[in-house]
Amino acid sequence: MIGPLPDGSPFSFDAHSWYRSGITNAMNISMLGSTGSGKSTTACAIALRALAHQGRKVMVVDGKSDWARYADAYGGVAVRFGEPDIALNPLDVPAGLDAASAGEQRMRAVRVLLEIVGERRLTDVELLALSRATAELPADARLTDVRMHIADPVGYSLKAAADLRDAGRTLLPPLDRLTAPRSSFANLLDRPSTVCFNPDTAFFVASLGQLSGPTELRECAFAAVQGWMHTMALGEPADRLLVLDEAWQLLKHESAAVAHAERLRLARAQNLATMMIMHRPGDIAMFGQPGSTHRASVETVFHLSDVHILGHLTADDAAQAQQLLRLNITETQTIRDVCTGEFLWSVETAVSGRRSWLVQTARSEREARLWNTKAG
Ligand SMILES: Nc1ncnc2c1ncn2[C@@H]1O[C@H](COP(=O)(O)OP(=O)(O)OP(=O)(O)O)[C@@H](O)[C@H]1O
Ligand SMILES: [Mg+2]
After folding, report:
1. With 222 labelled, which of 108, 113, 228, 367 sits at a CA distance of 20 to 30 A?
2. Separation of 310 CA from ligand 1 center, angstroms?
3. Where are the domains of the chain?
4. Protein residues with CB under 6 Å of any ligand 1 atom
């Protein structure tokens, strides 16, 4: 049970069961609410209830530092990025993945990083050079290897190699930034992973709150970890819930937003439900110009969720949520009035249209102690 409804009756939720029993058409969840409205707490309640279902696994990318504590308390594994020995190789692919899929995953992972540090989309010619460089890398390849293939394509005729070298020339500066020896980027992303994907781990948290360095490093880390989790999960099918807490870091960049939308479309076949936690509906309007690819991808990401969980919002934010989710006046007023831990669940049901419930997330005494983010 997540918590009681206003009449005291219990409200339960499990993304996979709701989807499989035909209540929803999608497994994804979005959550919005002002700072301190209880989003992480409620997301943790959802995750723990999902864990209690046989076979469900939970993976979390936490832009802050709340979930590592939850993982410690509930027998999960928490990786605290920012500690000096932690590295994650974005080129990791599960053993046994076919070469074409491996190349595709690697290309997507490197492309996002290059577009974040280069602050621009890659051109078609650059993409060609990158796809060739990521197509047939060895299992333990790193970003440095991609750089090497782009700077010096091997296995081609002289003319073809010269053309490819030319096409990839402009990729070298962002690649240099990612691979400069002893830089914070290389330390984190251009080493063999110290993090391993263990399919038996039921609760796995990547905590990014302690990561210091330039903003792009945090954004690259968020995108790399999220992409890595998607890719590694490909090799081990299971019912999984992926929680992205502070997901705006991922949507801020067009490339990451586009890649995320693509992954969400594929996620259903992977039995992967994604829960995206953001603050305000206005965050969505912050990214890209209206009508741009960036904005469209952010909106797509949002609309690929059938379950929207809304905590307290200010009057302005509630009005935006009303528009975005077609809430009625009573629902809009409700999200202005709810207190901490109370959420309006607006669900696009598969058969009877949109329905909503007001739910107070329930916590046991132990959970209340553990989930108190003010306790440090
Ligand atoms: N259901 C609840 N009942 C009582 N208190 C709650 C409930 N949910 C959260 N709280 C308290 O509210 C505070 C904020 O909760 P939480 O960190 O989950 O909010 P948040 O929306 O994730 O905040 P932020 O925007 O800063 O990430 C915590 O101290 C927590 O103990
Ligand atoms: Mg939070």
Report:
1. 367
2. 13
3. 99-188
4. 33, 35-41, 340-341, 361, 363, 371-374
* Residue 217 in this model has a pLDDT that exceeds 70: yes
Two tokens at 310? 């809304």
Strand, helix or coil for residue 355? strand
pLDDT band of 164, cuts 50, 70, 90: very high
**Contact present, 78 and 207 (Cβ < 8 Å):** yes
Phi, psi of 256 (to 5 degrees): -65, -35
pLDDT tens, position by position, 313-357 = 999 999 999 998 999 999 999 999 999 999 999 999 999 999 999
Three-class SS state of 150? helix
Closest residue CA from atom 1 of ligand 1: 341
Q: Is the per-residue pLDDT at 257 higher than 80?
A: yes
C-alpha 310/C-alpha 302 separation (Å) is 13
Is the pLDDT confidence value at 238 over 70? yes
Mutate which of 61, 344, 373 to test ligand 1's pocket (most atoms within 8 Å of Cβ)?
A: 373
Q: Counting beta carbons within 10 angstroms of the beta carbon of residue 152, is it exposed (0 to 12), middle (13 to 18) or buried (19 or more)?
A: exposed
Confirm whether pTM is higher than 0.85: yes
Whether 128 contacts 169, CB under 8 Å? no
